[in-house]
Amino acid sequence: MHKMQESSRLEKAIRTGGYGNELDKDPYLNWSNEKIKEFASKVFPELFKDANSPDFEKQLMIGNDPNIAGRACKEFTVDASGKYTVRSLGKILIRSNVLNSIRQLATTVGHELNHVVDHISGDYANWANHNSAGVAHSLSETKATNWEIYMRQ
């Protein structure tokens, strides 16, 4: 299994970003929010740029839900006519236990960057306006999860 990880796109991105020596040094709980942002910018430079270089904030728990590893913060509103608008707040929350593994950190950071891109590009609002808020959420989750699957190959 470890050999498969070494040749995955995720592993290559981590190494290309300059974190190859970090792969077997766990945990990373002492990383600052700025260090996580630097990691995101180096490991996923294009995705980070497309997400407008968001900030990161470690939290012990996100939304009182122990199953949430990360959250792309957004403002989601609906006007009187029922039209949705979505605005990225430029911040990604990362649950601190994700920093127990650099691979888990990379996966979570990339997943959440995909959500931010959906907010910025207008895709999330378009999905909500043409379907529903629930469908928009599901489509964004599907897209981010598909990215994870692609990166693990």
Protein model, in words:
A 3-stranded mixed sheet has the order 1-3-2. Helix content is 52%, strand content 17%. α2 crosses α3 (33-43) and α6 (123-130) crosses α7 (133-151). The chain has one domain (2-151). The mean pLDDT is 93. The chain is built from 7 helices and 3 strands; from the N terminus they run ααααβββααα. β2 and β3 (84-95) form a beta hairpin. The protein has 153 residues and is α+β, with helices and mostly antiparallel strands.
Please give the structural blueprint:
Layout (H helix, E strand, L loop, with lengths): L1 H5 L2 H11 L13 H11 L1 H6 L4 E5 L10 E9 L5 E12 L6 H20 L1 H8 L2 H19 L2
Helix pairs in contact: 2-3, 5-7, 6-7
Protein name: Tox-MPTase3 domain-containing protein
Organism: Flavobacterium crassostreae
The domain count comes to 1
Distance between the termini: 12 Å
Order of helices and strands: HHHHEEEHHH
Number of strands: 3
| Major β-sheet profile | 3 strands, mixed
Derived from helix and strand composition plus strand pairing, the structural class reads: alpha+beta
Please, how many helices? 7
Radius of gyration: 16 Å
> What share of the residues does DSSP label as strand, in percent?
15-25%
Name the poorly predicted regions: none
Assign an overall shape.
globular
Percentage of residues in helical conformation: 40-55%
- Average pLDDT across residues? 93
Q: Going across the major beta sheet, what is the strand order?
A: 1-3-2
Protein name: Tox-MPTase3 domain-containing protein
